[in-house]
Amino acid sequence: MALSANIKSELEKICGKNDVMDQDFVKTAYSQTMIYNNPVYPDVVVLPETKEEVSAVLRLANANKITVTPRAGGTAGPICVSDGGIIIDMSKMDKFLDFDEGNMVFTVEAGITVYNVVQELRKRGYDLPLKGWYAVPQWLEPGQPDMAQWIIGPLDWK
């Protein structure tokens, strides 16, 4: 089921015309991830740049009972719960916002890459306790800390 022209127009008002895409080649590109290869096609892809835009997209989708799936790097899967709906590509929201050194907590936007987080932390003399390929979290490896430890685990000094 394709979204109505009215919904697309509302999304364009929220995110801008260039950040709302429904061309077939875009939907095909977003239909799979590196890991999950059963294509599932969205009706539209939006690329918000602010939390206000994300909120507005979610309000519009909720009011119209449209499925929404967030996406960052596309390295995990599956993409959509079902064919259709909106994919919110978070890649434009890629900022390292804050680092509370006293509590060893940092705040980032949803689209930041692990690589960029590591680079920001290294500027401050810290590193993440990751091993191997950054896209494979430690909690997937046998004998490693659980997901909560991976997310909030201790930062290591260089």
Description:
This protein has 5 helices and 8 strands. The chain is α/β, with parallel strands linked by helices and about 160 residues long. It has 2 domains: about 5-90, Uridine Diphospho-n-acetylenolpyruvylglucosamine Reductase, domain 2; about 95-155, no CATH class. It has a 4-stranded mixed sheet with strand order 1-2-4-3. A two-stranded antiparallel sheet has the order 5-6. Helix 1 (about 5-15) packs antiparallel against helix 3 (about 50-65). The longest helix has 13 residues, at about 50-65. The protein starts with a helix and ends with a strand. About 20% of the residues are buried. Residues about 135-158 have low confidence and may be disordered.
Key features of this structure:
alpha/beta; Uridine Diphospho-n-acetylenolpyruvylglucosamine Reductase, domain 2; 2 domains; four-stranded mixed β-sheet; two-stranded antiparallel ribbon; 8 strands
Helix/strand layout:
Layout: H1 5-15, E1 20-21, H2 24-29, E2 44-46, H3 51-63, E3 68-71, E4 86-89, E5 96-100, E6 105-108, H4 114-123, E7 126-127, H5 147-152, E8 156-157
Parallel strand pairs: 2-4, 3-4
Antiparallel strand pairs: 1-2, 5-6, 7-8
Helix pairs in contact: 1-3
Average pLDDT works out at: 79
Helical residue percent?
25-40%
Q: What proportion strand?
A: 15-25%
Adjacency order of strands in the biggest sheet: 1-2-4-3
The H/E string reads: HEHEHEEEEHEHE
Rg from Cα = 18 Å
The total beta strand count reads 8
Largest sheet, in brief, is: 4 strands, mixed
CATH topology of the largest domain: Uridine Diphospho-n-acetylenolpyruvylglucosamine Reductase, domain 2
CATH superfamily of the largest domain: Uridine Diphospho-n-acetylenolpyruvylglucosamine Reductase, domain 2
Uncertain spans, ≥5 residues at pLDDT below 50?
133-158
Ends: how far apart? 52 Å
How would you describe the shape?
globular
The CATH class of the largest domain: Alpha Beta
Name the CATH architecture of the largest domain.
Answer: 2-Layer Sandwich
Instruction: Please give the domain count.
Output: 2
The secondary-structure class comes to alpha/beta
What is the number of helices? 5
